[in-house]
Structure prediction request, 175 residues.
Amino acid sequence: MYVLLWRSFLRDQSLTPVTVDDYAALEPAISGQIMELHHSKHHTTYVNSFNNFSEQAASLSSNSPSDIQQHIALQPLINFHGGGHINHSLFWENLAPKKQGGGEPPSEKLGEKIKETYGGLEELKKVMNAKLAGIQGSGWAWLVKDKETGAIGVRTYAVSFLALVEGDVWVIGEK
Prediction:
């Protein structure tokens, strides 16, 4: 039953990358050329691969043992590329140029929580960079808020796996 439901879900789903209007909007903090490369090549590869592997999975029969093995083999690829798409979508959606309110240190509630938990933004950056350095290969660091306690903390995830269920994402880093 799981495979049949999964197939019907995937058959109707297709991802597209988030639209980025101006790759140079974050200069000089982040190069427009880097942003364009990251979006048009890196993020697009996650999207295209997710769609490709999802289509392969949707085309399999749920009755054949070899098809079930192929479903199992495709699942980590779907998770990896789907997670890459979600992470990158959050990345693009949470960046803003100075003229749109970006580029400034967090203020109000977030700024207060960072100061209370880490002593300030510079200390948070040190913690986040240290945690990112501890990831073998590539990965993401997220500053999250626990919905139950209100506490904030840095969580890291290798490569493109995402666990948003831990809390609200506020600040991200990528290695």
